[in-house]
Structure of S9 family peptidase:
Amino acid sequence: MTSGPITPPLANKKPQRREHHGDVYIDDYEWLRDKDSPAVIAHLEAENSYTTARTQNQEPLRQRIFDEIKSRTQETDLSVPVRRGNYWYYTRTVEGREYGIHCRAPISSQDDWAAPLISGDQIGLAGEQILLDDNVEAEGHEFFSLGSFDLSDDGTQLLYAVDIEGDERYTIRVRTIATGENLPDIIPNTSAGALFDPSGRYLFYTTVDDAWRPDTVWRHEIGAARDTDTSIFHEPDERFWVGVGITRSRKFLMIEAGSSVTTESWLLDASDPTGDFTVVWPRHDNTEYDVEHAIIDGEDRLLIVHNGGGAVNFELVSVAAQDPQGEKRMLLPHDPQIRLESVDAFSDFLVVEYRRDGLTRLAIDRHDASGLTELDFDEPLFAVGSAGNPEWTQPTIRFGFTSFVTPSTVYDLVVATGERRLLKQQPVLGGYDPTLYEQRREWATAEDGTRVPISLVYRRDLVTPGTPAPTLLYGYGSYEHSIDPGFGIARLSLLDRGMIFAIAHVRGGGELGRTWYETGKTLTKRNTFTDFVSCARHVIDAGFTTPDQLVAEGGSAGGLLMGAVANLAPELFAGILAEVPFVDALTSILDPSLPLTVIEWDEWGDPLHDAEVYAYMKSYSPVENVRAVTYPAILAVTSLNDTRVLYVEPAKWVAKLREVGADALLKTEMSAGHGGVSGRYSAWHERAFNYAWVLGAAGLNPSESDN
């Protein structure tokens, strides 16, 4: 413990006037936006010192939680190998090293589709070849992130792109695999997702504008000077991001431009990589679509999942690849109870992913008259999805399954027979027993009568429903992003101390379909916040917890949710953990020069040009609605190099909270981005810090929370 009083740093007030639509707002802390100012850095460091001092008594608990995460994790591990071409590709980790090592090993024959089974702390496969060791690439850097990783079709070249700042700008390099040497080709300041064309002669990549928006697609010829690269597509509309990809069939290169509500795609025959892309469907406001190439009855078809013509939850049609704007064939019609999410095409079957009753679903269509066959599971809450399926002619489907109590599990499904092959389940060391844990679904009633789902998990022997227990309630509720039930090793450190973990599936997310999203955005955004408050009231009224034991957590747009509910119902919470929180929303969305602002107008509305949107956002933007009430304890965690939610937002929020006497802490990672620190051990330390604070806020004394 520290001795003597601990005084929080107070940010100087330097009033700046903001005026829009006749409304004047005086911002005392906008000066904190100047990242290059020594005074700003000094203030952030003073906040870090204060947070360190205030949480010093939690250090033993933090260390125990870190040790628990580490002891439950198989540190030397191997991902399930994925076949591509003549090799099995996988990533492995080594005890004591922060990052993964990307490797491959040869297949035994062209008919070798049975993925090698992984056991124990297996180090690698026979004939292993290391392609890229992230630990080597990260040497000398405080931050490391891999944004692109692709192999040429002949398996001789590797493309990879690295960010060492956390600002999501990557430098592309190309490596000759046989020698391990890099070619002279170096392309800085790119976005993520670069790839080779099938010939391996060209690579395609995207760059960003001054607002960090990927806006231009480039073609680079291997061996040529960067200044000879060709700009093949530019998107001038600031609402749209662009990306480049290739179909699984390797038949078409594809460019997609998308806003939050509108998409447009272009295709190019991959055998002619220097040719011109042609549009699939011209963009139409508020219509989204995804394109996949398939061969059906010997004909090249494009499968299009779209929400045009009133198909709110999306439908699936096919069109001729040579005439995509011609006749449409209906494959899966719109269903108001099912949110169709994606279709993946293979040479002999389709894989369809969708949502029903708030849960993800997976089904197979074998290109025959049998229709869709849905995979069934025997748990009440779960998440399932296909992944690791790059090959057009593969006879199996790789999919992952998880729940609150089942660690991430990887299967191969033999499509012809329906056989499921268990390939690997995430190891949980130390004798994890899933039967000790209970998962369940509750329903809260929102202010307008809407039923809002809540997912909960807890230990049966430590928690008795009806007897209040410490509870962590998580929420997000934006961009139609769903928070699905999933397993977490770190979370066991909460559950095994008698804490309930719950997710509030509030409007603005996508758990219950597109309408669930539409009624939690723009001028209905307050539903996201009031839904979360209703979920908090429900877990209290149902006897799961009490306000003195309830802590809320959310990050990014979920951090906006945290700031809003702190203002709406501070009396319901003992603590609020806000990670990279979007809490100065109105100021950010008013400034088109800031990263990602204009593209966000489809999500939040355009307050710069619309007085109604301005007034609505001002009514909930957390910084502008701090008031003289008793707030719960608040921990705001941010990163100096975050380009999505700038550090200045939580810095201003904490300064405003201090004005009304709130117990608010600010922790800034000085060498990280939106996703926090890089490296698994560093991430475990960060999670241990947050969880120790959560346990303390929920009333569990740090020195007594290991019973």
Observations:
- The chain has a mean pLDDT of 95.
- The CA atoms of residues 490 and 666 lie 22 Å apart.
